[in-house]
From TrEMBL:
Known role: Catalyzes the phosphorylation of ribose 1,5-bisphosphate to 5-phospho-D-ribosyl alpha-1-diphosphate (PRPP).
Catalyzed reactions per annotation: alpha-D-ribose 1,5-bisphosphate + ATP = 5-phospho-alpha-D-ribose 1-diphosphate + ADP
One Pfam family this sequence matches: Guanylate_kin
Family: Belongs to the ribose 1,5-bisphosphokinase family.
Protein name per UniProt: Ribose 1,5-bisphosphate phosphokinase PhnN
Domain Guanylate kinase-like: 8-182
Keywords: ATP-binding, Nucleotide-binding, Transferase
Pathway: Metabolic intermediate biosynthesis; 5-phospho-alpha-D-ribose 1-diphosphate biosynthesis; 5-phospho-alpha-D-ribose 1-diphosphate from D-ribose 5-phosphate (route II): step 3/3
SMART domains assigned: GuKc
Residues annotated for ATP binding in this entry: G15, P16, S17, G18, V19, G20, K21, D22
Keyword ATP-binding appears in the UniProt entry: yes
Amino acid sequence: MTETSAMGPVIAVVGPSGVGKDSLMEALAAGDQNLCLMRRVVTRAPEAGGEDYDAVSEEAFSKLVADGHFALHWPAHGLHYGIPHQIEALRAAGRGVLVNLSRAVLLQAQEVFGDFIVLSVTARPEVLAERLTQRGREDSAEVQRRLARARQPLPAGLRRLHQIDNSGDLQQAVAAARAAIYSTAVPERA
């Protein structure tokens, strides 16, 4: 990424709830002027907490879809998510745009955005269980469901996929993510 007219990449940050996606994204953007965050539009109540998002009703979301407001939109876990077309203006400025995406929409996003990097954020199961329990938003049964879902593989066919372990120090994960973003080599699939 440079300050030329080249489009910046879309950097999808994916991983299970509690893995630290938002913390990683915020630290990456804070430490690198060539990276910025993209706020999602979500049909979730504004008081639900968690990530920084634009809350809308299902009716308002449907109208935004009909009006062509989104570069990408999808349903997941009973909610609807959208990435506004504003992402293209950020990319046109040559900036890499960090966005929290659902694994189910990754292949579609790769086709829509072209220059597309996936950072798959992971953590050891015991670390993830502790983080989910500490945040107190899920009961023990939901924690177990989320841990099981964390083991599901990403879709095949992603061209630039990087695994980022966020089990320990956040700065180590940030360094690994930054190296992946600026790597020109396509990683091998495991």
